[in-house]
Amino acid sequence: MEKNNKSNMKKIAAVFITAFTIFAVTACGNNEDDSKNLISSEQQEKKTVNLFGPMEKTNPNADNIARTAFDMTVAIAEQKLNLIVEYRTYTAENYKEKTYDDVTLDRARNNMDDWYLLNPDTIQILGSEGRLADLSVLESAKNLREVVKTANVVNGKLVAIPQEVVAHGLFVNKDMFDKYNIELPNTPEELLECCRVFQQNGIQTPIGANRWWLENFVFAQAYADLYNGGNTEAEIKALNSGESKYSDYMRSGFEFLKELIDNGYIDAEKAYISEAIEGERADFLSQKTPIVMAYWGAANTETAYGNTDFELQVIGFPSKRGQMPVVSMTGYGVNVNAENFEDAINVLDIILSDKALQIYTETNKVISPSKNVEVDCIEALKPLNDRIEENVYVLGSNAAMNVEQWGNTCIIVRNLLNGASVEECMAEFDRLQQEALKK
User: Fold this and answer.
1) SS3 313
2) Can you give the three-state secondary structure of 361-387, one letter per residue?
3) Average pLDDT, stretch 169-197?
4) I need a labelling partner for 330 at 20 to 30 A (CA). Which of 108, 141, 163, 207 fits?
5) How many other CB atoms are there within 10 angstroms of residue 61's CB atom?
6) How far does Cα 425 stand from its chain's mean position?
7) pLDDT value at residue 62
């Protein structure tokens, strides 16, 4: 079991980087020497700041190759500060069995780079170890949405900031809902009723699911009050001290998932082996399945759900407080012992400025971490975006919690899909909490 869990966590870490970091790798190969060859002798005389991440740098001089949104913001910093940001890149081929998170932790603990793109669990670990700088000193930090600060504060320090906020929601075929006179669901009970009506009308499996994202149903119910009840800090403190139990929060969500599975509204066997989008996309696009779940960017991407033959709407997951977006994010952190600390801080401040984030947001059509930068989203995403603009959301990852949320909950949901009882799942949360309290 422990070996399988480690393997699952490696895959979960890969999903974070793949799904939530939208960098187009269009020009360079995976060899670091290739990227170095792009730097002129004049550039080599400039100062360098070293970034460790999962992506290569595109060639700014190549014909007919568009630089990625991230590269464009880096270019602003390079020009303004008269330096070069050197990309040190993770590739599975180079690191064999080590995950991106494994390698990042090792490099950060050995002060090998200046700044990093970090997954939520790595933000939590390095932040608690005191290895990440407090980014609240950045001028750009003054403009951050509360959701960003809530997710990335460890021991009172803002240790990471993303260039985008990733929101998950329910992707629904509005035409199928209209055909059977079904209202879009707001609560768990309403979703169950929707599924019952669909099944009654011959839709055998109303919800298309995969092994990565069913935890969003859990988060929406577990933390609806915690993040929207005005007592977030105190409730997290109680969880971290052991005064409250994570299992008490999670129970309703797991009971709801169990009911969806038992009624056949979700195919647990298929979900257990299905990759994100790949497992359910065909049935959703062919209108055999009216409901799937995905992240914001999937609504803009033609290889996902950006080109449907029906009216697509993206709404929040059902909760006691209505439709609830589930938010998660990677983030950039600066090594507190970075060789080029001041330069790294200055680069980050520029790429997170409203000017740079406007470019990034408009290019990738994502939610900006700055409250001053709004995304011109497609019509399908407006229901989800409206809730976020109202500051209504729950976090699927929160570095302030001493039990890592996204990866652990994903694994325990997979246990449920594989036949574990709700009580067994709750016992696993209790075990994780006890381990965290001993640290």
Assistant:
1) strand
2) HHHHCCECCECCCCCCCCHHHHHHHHH
3) 97
4) 207
5) 9
6) 23
7) 42
Structure tokens at 230: 């005005």
Residue 349 has pLDDT above 90, yes or no: yes
The label of the residue with tokens 């019509």 reads: 379
Token pair, residue 404, equals 């890592």
CA pair distance 22, 77, nearest whole angstrom: 20
- Spatial neighbors of 260 by CB under 8 A, at least 6 apart, are 192, 195, 207, 217, 266
Beta strands in 31-151 (DSSP E): 47-53, 83-89, 115-118
Does this model's pTM top 0.85? My answer is no
3-state secondary structure of 327: strand
Question: What is the spatial distance between Cα 60 and Cα 65, in angstroms, rounded to a whole number?
Answer: 8
Tokens of 26: 């269009």
Which DSSP string do the residues of 158-212 spell out, in sequence order? Answer: E--B-SSBEEEEEEEEHHHHHHTT-PPP-SHHHHHHHHHHHHHTT-S--B---TT
User: Could you give the angle at the alpha carbon of 23 between the alpha carbons of 394 and 114, nearest 5°?
Assistant: 85
DSSP state letter for 67: P
**Of 378, 405, 393, whose CA–CA distance to 314 is shortest?**
378
Among 228, 230, 232, smallest CA distance to 244 is for: 232
Burial class (CB in 10 A: 0-12, 13-18, 19+), 354: middle
CA-wise closest residue to 191 among 161, 216, 164, 155: 216
Nearby residues of 218 by Cβ (< 8 Å), 6 or more positions away: 250, 253, 254, 256, 257, 409, 413
Reply yes or no on whether the pLDDT at 34 is more than 50: no
Q: Which residue bears the tokens 């209209």?
A: 178
* Cα angle for residues 353, 378, 360 (degrees, 5° grid): 20
Whether the CB-CB separation of 326 and 294 falls below 8 Å is answered with no
Nearest CA among 84, 216, 145 for reference residue 368: 145
Query: Any bridge partners for residue 49, and if so which?
Result: 85
Q: What does the pLDDT average to over 253-260?
A: 96
Three-state secondary-structure class, residue 352: coil
Question: What is the distance between the alpha carbons of residues 215 and 429, in angstroms, rounded to a whole number?
Answer: 14
Q: Helix (H, G, I), strand (E, B), or coil: what is residue 84?
A: strand
